[in-house]
Structure formats: structure tokens, C-alpha cells
User: Fold these one by one.
Assistant:
Number 1:
Amino acid sequence: MGGTFNPIHYGHLVTAQEALSQFNLDKVIFIPTGDPPHKTDEEIASAEHRYLMTVIATASNSKFFVSRIEIDRKGKSYTIDTLRELRKIYTEDVSLYFITGADAILEILTWKDTAEILTLCKFIAATRPGYDLSRLESLKKKILDTEDKIFVMEVPALAISSTDIRARIKQQRPIDYLLPEGVCKFILKNGLYR
Ligand code: NAP
């Protein structure tokens, strides 16, 4: 599961749990993006802080794991490099699904080495309720593959968003119950997003 996780919240956790159940997965590996290739202007907490928040949020679930693969790799975090590394760890008989937000997947044709990415994994695109699916449908047509590569999964809890949480912190509005309590306390303790 890829994401900037800036910060991680219950929408991400419910997405992971739902993917485990709907796709009968063995585990979900959360991979916080180290240096997002497509973001320059947004306020992003340090990679180490985002990694630690992800560890705190997932600690109690025995099927959730967190990888430092993108945090520790130098340079921009390209998904292709991550998938190549994962493919060295997991043999061909293991199916890899890349879980992330639908809006991120819509941009996949602009990502580095898209054609190879599509040979290495399938995608689970998490959407918020009421999401307009037409752009994902046209993306699927553009990919022109006989095998299904992109699965859509609606997640009501994705009404929660990292952008909204950051705005709330700036405006000194409550963030309780939008993300795990341990993550809330970590944000306050470290003065993130003020
Ligand atoms: P983003 O553009 O910040 O997020 C797009 C939307 O998807 C937002 O609404 C976001 O909500 C949601 N989202 C993000 N991660 C999610 C997750 N794991 N589960 C459910 N919803 C999620 O996307 P991003 O986080 O920067 O990137 C997503 C993934 O795509 C990362 O792994 C990133 O490295 C990869 N990516 C790769 C390339 C490349 O290789 N060139 C380029 C772009 C992205 P929140 O804001 O609430 O999270």
C-alpha cells in the first residue's frame, strides 16, 4: 500500500483492512513515500515522522506491516523501483497488488516506466463515496490489456482526508477520532502541521 501518509488516518487503515478481506490477501505492507516525485508545493512532514506515524497506526494489526524501502532509498521515490525491489523478495508465484487512492492511479500513465509497472502488479484503486468512476474506466480502456489490472474499491471511511486533517491542525480544530489516538499525540508532541 503506497501513500505519502501525511498523516496516516482511519481512511487508509479501513482501506487496507477492506483490501485484505475483498482480495483475500495474506498481508498489507504500508510503504510511506520517501521523496514524492510529484509534490513540490505541499507541506510534507519528514519521511521519518511519516514512517513513525505509520508504524504507530498499524502496530496492533498482525497483518499490517510497514516498509522503509522508499524512506531509505536515495532520490525520488518511484513506484517502479519499489516494485522491482519487492519482486526480488517475493517470487513469481506471489501476486502483488498495489493499493492506493484512485486519484493517484489516474495519473499512472505519467509515472516512470508505466508499461513495466503493469507487468509487476495489479492495482486496487480506493475511492471515496460518490467518486466519478468514468475517468478510471477510460484509463482502463487506454491500458488495453486483456487481463484486469485495476480494481476499484469504494471505501466510505475515505471521507477522511490528510488534507483536511492538516487544515484542522492549522486552524486549531479537533482531529480526534479521524486518526488513531497514538498518531494524534505524536503529531502534537512533535508540533507537526502547525
Ligand atoms: P496523493 O496524490 O497524495 O493522493 C491522491 C488521493 O489518494 C488523495 O485523495 C489521497 O488521500 C488518496 N490516497 C493516497 N494514498 C492512499 C492510500 N494508501 N489509501 C487510500 N487513499 C489514498 O497520492 P500519494 O500519496 O502522493 O501517492 C500514492 C502512491 O502513488 C504513492 O505510493 C506514490 O509513491 C505513488 N506515486 C508514484 C509516482 C511515480 O512513480 N512516478 C507518482 C505519483 C504517485 P489522502 O491525502 O487522505 O491520503
Number 2:
Amino acid sequence: MIRNLFISAQIALYLLLSTVSLAAEKAIIDSSARFHPVISDRGMVVSQEMLASQVGADILARGGNAVDAAVATGFALAVTLPRAGNLGGGGFMLVHLAKENKTLAIDYREMAPASASRDMFLDAEGDVDNSKARFSIQSSGVPGTVAGLLHALERYGTMTPKQVLEPAIALASKGFPVSLDLSSSLMARHKTLHKNAASKKYFYKADGAGYQFGETLVQEDLAATLGRISKAGRSGFYKGKTAQLIVAEMQRSGGLIRDSDLANYQVVERVPVCGGYRGNSVCAMPPPSSGGVHMIQMLNILEGWDLAAVGHNSAAYIHRLVESMRRAYADRSSYLGDPDYFPVPVAELTDKKYAAELRQQIDLHKASRSEDIRPGLDSTSGANESTETTHFSTWDKWGNVVSNTYTLNFSYGSGISVSGAGFLLNNEMDDFSAKPGSPNGYGLVGGVANAIEPGKRPLSSMTPSIVFDAAGAPILATGSPGGSTIITIVMQMVLNVIDFDMNVAEATAASRIHHQWLPDTVFYEAGISVDTLQRLRDMGHQLNDKTSRLGATNTIQVDPSGKMFYGTADYRRDGSGVAVPAVAD
Ligand code: DON
């Protein structure tokens, strides 16, 4: 009898353990298949949060196109991934339209309010007040997300705002199970979010405690705001009750955004910046993002070497990458800003002749010093700042593609929510150069090109990208969060696929490196061998003293027929997922 009980207990334990491991296995398959992409022939959505990916895939299953799916995913992420998904921020969307064979860039970056001014973040001594630039109500630019998503839907989608907003409204009003990622990111931002009564109310329980994994988060005020957008479109956010709530919040706490700033917010359609790379064409976001220009500039430099022969992540390879990055980021600090306010020399920076000159300066055996490339002030902060933006890619069976990156800037933005409206405000004003030579939250420096001016858009690094093969067919959609590191991360995805023929899962998993001119430091992920690191030191490179995790790419690749889709959600952050449309009955 005792023996039988013992055996039953063992079987029960075995069953319990096998359930746990099955659940774990399922979670891994759901969140990201390492080295094996998820495969589909019906289109795909890859985002940082599985429920939101599923929302997009359901839209595809109902006959929506990639733009419908992207807009639905974007609104859903505003509910399920509040640290980066947003209504109160801004971003960039690259759209490829198969029928028209056209690729366009939608700029819905935040704009500085009309009363913003160049020195608004300087203290009495003329130094940058970082807490004002990053965590005050004045750190918010006029949000662009709602206008941008609706612009894309209206011009290039096939569904109504009501249809694409319905899933987000349901997630906010009925609630959804809190993921480990949401629970732990709220824990990490506890102090900042508790300083603002509305954020505390929206993201914590009545007693101030955090939500645990699996508990339900309901966001009633957010559901009501989404409902107003669903009914009235753009006016549901930039006018009427939502606008009143935003302006009331601003007036209560010394913010600058007024009715006229909201009413005047403008989405701008721009021509993507594209460059040839080993017979392919790489298209990405033009200014006010620095992403496309500098990714193409770096690829132009690198194209002069046979990287495949040098070997992936060898010291010789990393050296070439670092030296290219150093030069591109030095240029970024001087020449990049909002093109509507500053004449950004895009053609010159992406000229292959200019790249050849830069390549010639590079000693293949010795690291250069950033201070010799261009005199710059020392920067102490770098790529280690908490980095929260989010990228998603959608692709439909007709060959339309969306590559979208949007953000509140820091994790949970400024930490300030609009009371009564249920969403967080961005702290994107810190992406301006508050003072020439003073590093922003990502250690990036700038000058007059990126100085604060009313109505101007702060310079960004966000790099939503689409790569085309020699025949002009789209083969890859990718992008990443990571602040200043975004451009180099996205470029390494492109190199991994083009030069090293990796599948999208391998390309995602491969260890990444980053350099941004200042600080003069090579950031690197675990997985680069100690021998390689030593060789880099011997060449004179200064390596960061610990590894960093770089970015979170959410990528779709297609095979040359254009019929099979391979998707990988980055395993670097929990909760991400690839979703494919269910087969119609
Ligand atoms: O636009 C930019 O470059 C930054 N505001 C992006 C911030 C970011 O990527 C934070 N995320 N991980």
C-alpha cells in the first residue's frame, strides 16, 4: 500500500513535471523559435507582444492587408505593451505596396510644441537639467502615433478604424493576463510610475502593489480613449474630450502642449532612403530619423570588403564594423536633424564615393580613436540606458509589407499619464540636442542641426527597414528598439542575411556589437569569444567592461518565390511572438 502510494506520488510528480516542461516548450515555440523561424504561406505578424501579434494575424485572416494588420497591432500594443506600445508617442512606418511596386515612409514622429525653445532644458548655470528633459511633463513632444496609424489605414488599408480598433478596445476594457515581461518591467519602473498619481492608478493595484504574472490588467480610461478614436478617427484624439484631457494635464503640471499644437500635428509622407548593397536594395527611414542614412553609409563602407571571407564575428570583421560605425556616428552628431528645419546632406552621406574615402582612412590592423575622427566632448553615458521602443513587421499574402518602429522613448516614457485618458506621455524631447555636445539619454551628442525649435521633430535612430533582392522583390522586413544602438543592430541583421546567408532565426540569434563614436567603447553581447575580444583589445579597441543585450528585432523574411514567410521574434526580450493567420474554414 505504502509502496503503491509512493509509485502514485512518483507518477503524479512525473506528470506534473512533464506538464511544466510541455508548457515551457509551448512558451518557447510561441515566443520565438530559436534558430528555426516560424513558417507560413499565409502572411505573418511579428511583434514584441504575442497577444498583439495575434490581433494582427486575425485581421489578416479576415482578409485585411498588411497595413490593416499593422494598424491593429499598433493599437493593441498600446494596451498590452505599455512600456513601448503607445498612443502618447510617435514613430515611423515603412510600407511596401505590391501592386503599385512602391515603397513609402510615414513619419509620425512627435513635434515640439509651439512654445518650446532652444534652451528650455538648461538650468541657471547653462547646464542641461536631465531630469527636466527626461522625466518632466515638458519632456513630451506632441504625440503622433494616432495620426500616423490612422493615416496609414486611410491611405493604404482596406478596413475601417472601428474594425482595426475593436480588438484593442476589448483588450483594454475586458483586460488581459499580465505577462512576466509586463509584470517585471512595471516592477523595474515602480519608482518613476508611482510619482505620478494617474500612472500609479493605471498600472498598479489599489494598494500600490504590482500585478503578478497571470493577473488581469483592465484599462478602462484607455478603452474609452480608444473608443473615441474608433468613433471619430483623428478627432477622437486631437480634438474633443481626449484633447481636453491632454491640455488639462499640461496646464495642471506646467506642460507646453496646447489645443493648437494637437490640432496642428502633421503626419508627413517621405521618400525612403535606399542604397544598393551587393546587388540588393536596402530601404529605410529617412530624416528625421538618422537610421536609414547611416545604415546605408556604413553598408557602403563595408561593401568594399569581402566580409564573408573575413568570417562572421571574427576580430577582423568586428574591427571593420566598429570603424565604419565610428565614422557614421561622428557624422550623425553634426549633419542630422529634422529635414524641414535643417538641410541634411542625405545624398552626400550616402554617396558610395564618400564611403570609399572613409574606407581608405581605416587601418585594417589598428583601431582609430574617436577623438581623432572628429573633436568631440567626452561622453560618459552610453548604450546601457534602459531602452524601450518596439518594432513590428507585417506581411500579407499579396506581398504588401509593413515595417514599423514606434516609441515613448524611455521605458514607460516620461512616466506621466494623462489623467482620465489612460495613456502615458513620451519623453521624446530628450532626443533633441538640449545643448551642443551634451549627451542625451543614449550618450548621443548633437548640435544646431538637432537643436530644439517649435514644431520641429527630434532626431531619431529608429530604423524600420525593408530589403529588396536584385529583381526588386521584398525579401526582409526588420527593425529594433535600442535607442542609439538601433541602427547598428538593424545593419547587422542585413549583413547576417546578405553576407552570411543566415536564415532569419540565425540572423536574430547571432551576437551583436555596437559602437557610436562617443563614448569610444565597443559594446558587445555574450557569445563573442574571449580570444576575439582579446584580439580587438590588442588592436587598440576599448571594450565595455560587461556584455549588453542589444535590441529586439521582430523580423519577417520571404523566400525568392514570395510565397513562404519566415518569421522570428527576438528572444532577447520575453513575450514577443510570431502569429500567422488561421486557415479559413
Ligand atoms: O527615436 C529614437 O531614436 C529613440 N527615442 C528611440 C528610443 C528607443 O529605442 C528606446 N528603446 N528601446
